[in-house]
Amino acid sequence: MDVLAAFFTSTGFAGLTWGNAVMLVAGCTFITLAIVKDYEPLLLLPIGFGIVVGNIPTPEGMPLSVYDPGSVLSYIYYGVREGIYPPLIFLGIGAMTDFSTMLSSPRLVLLGAAAQAGIFLTLLGALWLGFPAAEAGSIAIIGGADGPTAIFLSAKLAPHLLGAIAISAYSYMALVPVLQPPVMRLLTTRAERRIRMQAPRAVSKREKILFPIGGFLITALIAPGAVPLMGMLFFGNLLKESLVTDRLATTARTALVDVVTILLGFSVGASTQAQTFLTPQSLLIFGLGAASFVVATAAGVLFAKIMNLFLKEKINPLVGAAGVSAVPDSARVVEAVGREEDPSNHLLMHAMAPNVAGVIGSAVAAGILWSVLAK
Amino acid sequence: MTAPGGWNGIVEAGGLSLALAGMSVVFVALICISLYITALPRVLALWDSLRPASAPRHASPAPQPPRVQVAQKNAAPEAEAAAALLAVAILRHDPDAAGLLGMTTTKSTPEN
């Protein structure tokens, strides 16, 4: 009987807290959203299962969780903790991104900058709520709507908040189709939503090859803190566009990015143990994350409207909402909202320009925050 | 959360200047990229106009002479070749005409 009692104390049931139970439900909700609703399944499913794994109570003295030195999960989590996975994901993103629409519409690049207002206004909000500067910077980057960037900066500035920030960033990215449309409709008139834009011009192969080289030099020299992310993004894009490294580009955008996504999603999920995750801070982070998405969307749309005051060929202001990174979901949302007003008006190609510019903008913002706030 | 929070929290952390400077730097970076991609096609066009004309690196190669020698037009006397071709054509397709030319041929039958 004593043996049975001793065994029971070593099972997960004995150590299960209400917090673990809540997180197990949260993990299962993520998995359900991924499978049933198809919300960012490539991310939410690994994260959801990671949450479930991370919240199984472990016996004392057994190194099992991501925070236990020497555990298997801690080795997988190493890539998150040290900021290794995000640049590798950026390599894959670069190898799968076609910058043609951005190259053909230079003025739309500015919308990708305007939407980064969400980051810096959230920074002020987090400072107002009493977060120290480094934590505020990590929370603010959620407004960049870029999961890898958020993880990279949090790992550098506030590793103890990494789980909450990563979950918040990816949750809101999955909720882009829910969060953005009301803001877009609120800030635009029906006539504005029906504006048609000229078809983008054809971009030559040489432009596509020269862009990643010049783009990297510009961003890296202006914000050296963005070198790991920008370097890998533009390197991946050069692999794709040069046409002489097809094998490398194919590996980067398929096998490599898939492997890293699995490891990153799973280990981030496993890091959300109830004891460290279920805190009032996490609730504030979630609130600030939602606010930053709304502000970023509004800033992009309003900036497009301001640009229209000076432009002969008007921009459909909906396109500004795509400046919040979240490639390609926010561009798809722009297309959907635009077609509600005019089913024959296709905005997807135009929205991709601020969308990829937003990726660059949020990485530059992360570089700035890292270089200023790192001690 | 150990910072004072409120307006003091923003001021003490230099939040306003960081937000303004950060936003400005992001704009500067993306304006530079915008200018770069605006100038790129023009610079390439200028480069092409300055460069001496030469065959493009990836242009299709000049046609090579065939390895197998084929009969040239002047390999046989033109009149003889034409007459031979005419005869073959008539024999194969028009036996009546072949008869008019003094040539005989077998008429194809349905059984053939």
Please render the helix and strand layout as text.
The complex is a heterodimer of chains A (375) and B (112).
Chain A: H1 2-10, H2 12-15, H3 18-37, H4 41-54, H5 72-81, H6 85-96, H7 100-104, H8 109-114, H9 117-128, H10 133-140, H11 147-157, H12 162-174, H13 176-187, H14 190-193, H15 205-222, H16 227-242, H17 246-270, H18 274-277, H19 280-308, H20 329-341, H21 348-373
Chain B: H1 6-12, H2 15-50, H3 78-93, H4 95-100
In brief, what are we looking at here?
The complex is a heterodimer of chains A (375) and B (112). Chain A is mostly helical. In chain A, 72% of the residues lie in helices and 0% in strands.
Report on this model:
The complex is a heterodimer of chains A (375) and B (112). With 375 residues, chain A is mostly helical. Chain A has one domain. Chain A is built from 21 helices and no strands. The termini of chain A are far apart. With 112 residues, chain B is mainly α. Chain B has 2 domains: 7-50; 77-112, no CATH class. In chain B, 58% of the residues lie in helices and 0% in strands. Chain B is built from 4 helices and no strands. Chain B has helices at 6-12, 15-50, 78-93, 95-100. The longest helix of chain B has 36 residues, at 15-50. Chain B is rod-shaped, with a radius of gyration of 42 Å. Chain B starts with 5 loop residues before the first helix and ends in a 12-residue tail after the last helix. Classes of the chains: A mainly alpha (375), B mainly alpha (112). Chain A binds chain B through residues 102-103, 106-107, 109-110, 112-113, 116-117, 119-121, 123-124, 127-133, 135-136, 204, 206-207, 210-211, 214-215, 218-219, 222-223, 281, 357, 360-361, 364-365, 368-369, 372, and chain B through 1-7, 9-10, 13-16, 18-23, 25-38, 40-41, 44.
